[in-house]
Design goal:
The chain is built from 16 helices and 11 strands. The protein is an alpha/beta fold.
Length: about 375
């Protein structure tokens, strides 16, 4: 059974929903799986020969690729699809590992080789990996510093030379790996190694916001009690669809805002996180630009003593409104009762009006 049939079985059993974007990816994984069925793992050997002696025979661009690099926003099912491929791959010597854990192992191996006086420790470690696995599946590939970037590049280059087939998932296209990092230009040649040996596949799965609204029952929940919180928990789990939460960092004018409950262009945050700390319009504009969807919880009734929080809330809603972000909110009162007295309460009428529009069906049906 290949990954495509297993995917179809899961859909038929109701375990997952049919998704055209996922089908496109799993079909590519199926094609790779079928090439791996060549006796003696001939696909890796054939590709290696073609790369070393291109004048002997011509192979298609997809066949020359020694693996697949699957990227896209969190919550789209990348890990699930890779697992379907790995579980059904007709290869005995195979390994599936989280990228972070793998890199820790590689660092340890290189340290050991240096202690033994190896002149090329990276090559030794890469060869040791290739000797035990002709198929490697990496989950959540990312580069956080230039040392790892250079090491990954050298490691993959050697693995590809050895004919190892690599399948990796990532939230970022290779061109965006270590984007903005120090001395990134030194990593660029290794990005080309990845792109020249792996087929790039983006898992596109635009969120059906009408469906999200139906699952949430409505976009504005009053009051912000345990029942509302439980409803947001259930909705958030459905949106994550098995993918882990990640941190979202927003930078503006030399300041940064870090939020822990993010997935792709979706965010779940508390009023205290966004409106109690001293943030300005630049941060809110950057946040709105980074999001398609926001769950904002526990918005309180605001008093004159909380003018600064009310002012920030107004600025936040304005930024979300202009960026057409879909907002689901839990609050202690209806929009027109959130801030009824104090400085700026009259101007808050526009914010209340925008909140009413943002909870409407028309807003959720718009792009």
């Amino acid at each position: 059974m290949g990954p495509l049939q297993k995917y179809r079985d899961l859909v038929a059993a109701g375990s997952i929903a049919h998704d055209p974007a996922q089908v496109h990816v799993v079909e590519k994984l199926q094609a790779l799986s079928e090439r791996l069925q060549t006796p003696g793992h001939g696909m890796a050997k054939r590709v290696a020969r073609a790369l070393l002696r291109p004048e002997r025979g011509r192979v298609g661009a997809e066949t020359r690729m020694q693996g697949i690099y699957l990227y896209g926003a969190a919550g789209r099912g990348k890990s699930m699809l890779m697992d379907l491929f790995f579980d059904t791959a007709p290869v005995t010597a195979k390994r599936r590992v989280h990228f972070h854990a793998f890199m820790q192992e590689i660092h340890s191996g290189i340290s050991s080789q240096r202690e033994q006086g190896a002149t090329d420790p990276v090559r030794h470690v890469a060869d040791a990996v290739a000797d035990t696995a002709s198929l490697l599946c990496f989950d959540e590939m990312q580069i956080t510093d230039i040392t790892d970037g250079m090491l990954v590049g050298q490691l993959l280059k050697r693995l590809f030379e050895r004919g190892v087939v690599v399948v990796a998932t990532s939230n970022r296209h290779p061109d965006e790996l270590y984007d903005g990092g120090w001395n990134r230009q030194a990593f660029l040649p290794f990005i080309e190694v990845i792109k020249s040996h792996m087929q790039m596949l983006e898992l596109r799965h635009p969120v059906d916001y009408r469906r999200v609204l139906a699952q949430a029952e409505h976009a504005y929940h009053v009051p912000a009690n345990n029942k509302a919180s439980a409803a947001m928990d259930a909705l958030w789990l459905r949106l994550l669809d098995g993918e882990p939460e990640t941190a979202l960092t927003i930078s503006a004018h030399g300041r940064s805002l870090s939020l822990s409950r993010s997935a792709g262009r979706m965010l779940r945050a508390d009023f205290k996180e966004l409106c109690v700390q001293a943030l300005g319009s630049a941060e809110y504009l950057a946040l709105a630009k980074a999001l398609d969807f926001l769950i904002l919880e526990n918005v309180p009734v605001l008093s004159p003593a909380r003018y600064n929080e009310a002012s920030r809330f107004i600025t936040l809603i304005d930024a979300l409104y202009e960026a057409r972000v879909k907002l689901i909110m839990t609050a202690d009162a209806e929009p027109d009762a959130l801030y009824v007295e104090g400085e700026g309460s009259f101007e808050f009428g526009r914010t209340a009006s925008r909140l009413e529009e943002m909870r409407s069906t028309g807003w959720w049906q718009s792009s």
